[in-house]
Write a structure and sequence with these properties.
Layout: H1 2-7, H2 22-34, H3 38-58, H4 62-66, H5 73-107, H6 111-140, H7 143-176, H8 180-191, H9 195-200
Length: 202
Amino acid sequence: MQIAENTTKEKAFPRLSFQASRLPNMWQLIEQLNALPEEEKSILQTKSNRYFNRLEQLKIKEVGVAQVAYANIGVVLALLVGLPAFIVGFLGNILPVKLGKYLAEKKANTLEFNSSLRFTFEVFCLLGYYLLLFALVLLFGNWWQVLGVALLPFFGHFSLQWLDYFMVWKEARKAKKLPKADFEELVAWRKELEIIDYLNDE
């Protein structure tokens, strides 16, 4: 499923879409995969183990092979242009995010529970943080500061998107630096595991 997800990167913008979400599509793939004969499942599992073990040996992440096209000068320039906004968004939102994480870790007993609890605490911490900042600038600030606080959530969202693209670029760059024989081997093995194409051929 990781290969299917990495094959097509979800666009950051626009956030509104009238097309079916990726989650139902992934569930459909899982159901189709579970319906395969045991022999075919075993073959796919063997190929998957071979591919991911090789990635681990080469210290490469799967997304780097899937999105090697990200390793280009255009992406580098876009990341550099967006770097100031990333810094503003990161520094402007890090405090409530860290607080939410800390509170979740104090309350959660299991890793699974921690994830949902952390999301809840972070949302409430961010909302409280924005409301407090907004009240302070309304009382003591000027309209520039009011505008800055109003834009802070958007900068925070942008920083997450920037970081995602940076990580993909970083892994794609590592994959592109592999010896040609190693990279072509990974691409060939990956092609055998592209579940969407495989199931469509059934």
